Amino acid sequence: MKNITIWARRYVLVYGIIMLCTFFMCLLFNPDSELPVVSFFGRIMVFALIALLSLVVYYAKEELTVKAWWMRTVLHLLVLEAVLLPLAHHWGFWHGGTDILVYAGFILLAKAVWHLMDYGRNAKTAAQINERIRKNRLEKGIGKE
Known about the structure:
The chain is an all-alpha fold. The chain has 4 helices and no strands. The chain has one domain (2-140). Helix 1 (2-29) crosses helix 2, helix 1 packs antiparallel against helix 4 (97-140) and helix 3 (66-90) runs antiparallel to helix 4 (97-140).
């Protein structure tokens, strides 16, 4: 059940990031656009699901080295661009040469936001673990001089 909750939270986070990027894309590049709400939200839900499923590139049986993490991060970005750009074009989210650059840039921006938020969550978890280790050591008398 815990894993389902984690993935549900991640899905909502990805969906939110995509919606924020969409808002800013429309605000900056097409402020007069009118979106068909039901089909648009449904398509963004599919986008979020695809983005979440693409995280499978990070799967490893053991902890990733820094180099392996960076390689998978680049691979993940390429997978996102390769899958989301054609799908977005098919759905009419972008139309020409400049549009694809803007859309690809926003996918990169969304990935950067994801990593910043993920880093913050991981740093908080690491701080909690370190605090727990410190308390355990103090309780057992380890580290006293």
